[in-house]
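Support reply, case 0932

Customer input (verbatim):
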Amino acid sequence: MNAERKYIREVVKKSLRANFEKIVVEAKLTEQEENVVRMVIIRKASTVETSLKLLAPIAPFFTEEVYQYFSDESIHTTL
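Our regenerated output:
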C-alpha cells in the first residue's frame, strides 16, 4: 500500500510540474510572472491541506486517506 501512495504522489508531482512547464512555455512568462504562478500553485496546495485539517474531525477516514497521498505523516498528528 505504501508503494501505491508513493507512486500516486510521484504521478501528481510530475503532472503538476508538467502543467507548470507548459504554462511557462506557452505563455512565455517573464521570471516575475513565473514566480507568481509558482506562488499560486503553492497556495492551492496549502489550501487543500488546510481544508483537510478542518475536515479531519468530521470525516477522519476520508481525510486520512487523502492526506496520505501528500505526506507520510498522519493528518491527526499534524493538527
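We compared this against your earlier run and they match. Two observations from our side: Helices lie at 2-27, 31-55, 60-68. The mean pLDDT is 80. Please reopen the case if you see a mismatch on your end.
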